[in-house]
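Bit of a strange request maybe. I'm writing a small parser for structure token strings and I need a real example to test against, not something I typed by hand. Could someone generate the tokens for this chain?
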Amino acid sequence: MQTSTSPLGIPSVKSNPPLRVVEQPARLRWRKLAIVTTEETRFIRFEDIIYCKSVSNYTNVYVQGGKTYLCSKTLKDIVAKLPGDQFLRIHDSYVVNVECITSLKKKTGEMEVENNLLLPISLA
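Reply from user aminoacidic:
Good idea to test on real output. This should exercise your parser:
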């Protein structure tokens, strides 16, 4: 604290302004999946993904508009990056966007997604 004298000769005490709590900045919520290919890194919005299919140590990512991207990550790695409330693992080789499910076929044990494609459902 510093003291000083006012024009009237009365000592005044200068104090520092009160401390305030600074909030941490909000963390960026990244709502995209980064797919690394040989030519580029493509960022795909989660809601554009219809389903992902495991192909050995690679994963095919099927998106709206009929495009498919081959990613050099395993399906397990891809699932770890997807929001759990939006994607469902239906089989060892398949993960599907729950918003894209149109029906369940009880007799055949398959799930139909938006593009009229039937995906197998694991019994386990």
